[in-house]
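Milestone M4 deliverable, item 7.
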Amino acid sequence: MTTTTPKVTHAPVFTDGAEFRIPTFKLLKQDGSLYKGGKAPAIDKDKALRIYTAMVTTRVLDERMLAAQRQGRLSFYMQCTGEEAAVIGSAAALDDADMIMAQYREQGALAYRGFSIDEFMNQLFGNDLDYGKGRQMPVHYGSTKLNYMTISSPLATQIPQATGYAYGQKLAGDGHCTVVYFGEGAASEGDFHAALNMAAVLRVPVVFLCRNNGYAISTPAAEQFAADGVAPRAYGYKMDVIRVDGNDVLAVYAATAAARKLAVEENRPVLVEAMTYRLAAHSSSDDPSGYRSKDEEAVWREQDPILRMQHWLQKKKWWTADEEKSLQERLRKEVLDTMKRAQKRSPPPLESLVTDVYDEVPPELQRQFDALKAHIRKYPDAYPKSAHDPSVAPSSNAQPSHAKQGDA
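Output delivered:
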C-alpha cells in the first residue's frame, strides 16, 4: 500500500531519480557582494557581529587547542575549521530555546549561544568545573542552560534522538524545534533513515542539518554514495529539503530560518544539506595528506567562510581592519590565559565516579570503588595527588553537573 494514488503504466518503466537535480542556494560571493537577484536576510549589525565573533572565536580556539594537543597538553581535539558558516549561520537562525543536538564539530553553535572560553577549557581538560565531571573525551560538550545536548561518541545516535525529542516538543506545543547536526558519513548509518522516516510519519518539528564536507574521515563522498549527495534522500520520506552553500553564512542563515518556520508552524520536518569542506584533519589523530591533495585544499581555502563574511561586513561599513586585529589579539590572549587556568585546576573528586546514576550507590559499585581507593593508596605515585589526598579538594565554586542531560 502507498499513501498516494499511484500512476499506472502498462509497460515496465524504471527511474533512478536523476531527474531530481537539487539546486544549491547561494547569496554571498567570496568578495562579500551578493549574487544578482539575491536578497540578504534581515540581520542587523549587532546580530551580524555576534555571528562573526563566534566564527572567529571558534577558529582561534581550534588553532590553539590543536597546538596544545600536539604539545601533549591535551589528549584529543577536533576542529570546525572551514565549516564555521554552516554551523554558526544555522545556529543563529534558531530561537535560543530550540534544542541543538550536535555530532562533534559544532562547537561554534555553543560559542554563538554564549558558552565561555572557560567552559570550553574546563571540558577539554576535564577538571572539577567540567559539567561532565571528566567522564567524557575532549570536545564532548554539553550545556543545559544553552539547550545543547551533551555530545556522545557513537556516530549518528543523535539523529533519531532528535526526532524523539522533537516529538516531545510537538506534544508540549511551546513553539520550539530541534536541530540536529551530522556529517554526510553519518547519513550512511541506519539511524539516519530511521530518524527521517519517523519524523516524516509523526510530523515533528525537527531540522536535520547535514554538513556535507566531502569526507567521512578518509572516505570521499564519491565512494560513499552514487546519488546526488544526501539531499535527494528526503524524497523517499516525502520530506521538505534544501541544499545550501555551507560556506555562505547568509544563505545558511536564510535556509535554516525558513526550515525552522516550516518545522515549528507546520510540524514539517526538513532536511538541510550544507555543502562545505573540512579544511582541517578529521581529528588530531588524522593525517589528511594520505587521502587528499594540497591542491584540492587550496581551492577550498579560497572559499574560506570567515573571510567571505568579513568582506561582507566591511562592505556594509560594519567592520574594519583595526577591529579585526583587535579581536584576533584579544581572543588569542583569552584562549591562552584560560587554558593555563584550566590546566591548573584539580580534577573532579574521586567520589564523583559513582554518583549521578543511582539514587544510592549499589553495594557492588561501592565495593569496586573501595577497591579502587585501596589500589590508589598502594600505588600513590602513579596517580594525581588529588586522587588519594583528601586535603586536595575541588574548588568550592564548582558548577553543577550537566552530564545527565544527553549523556550516552
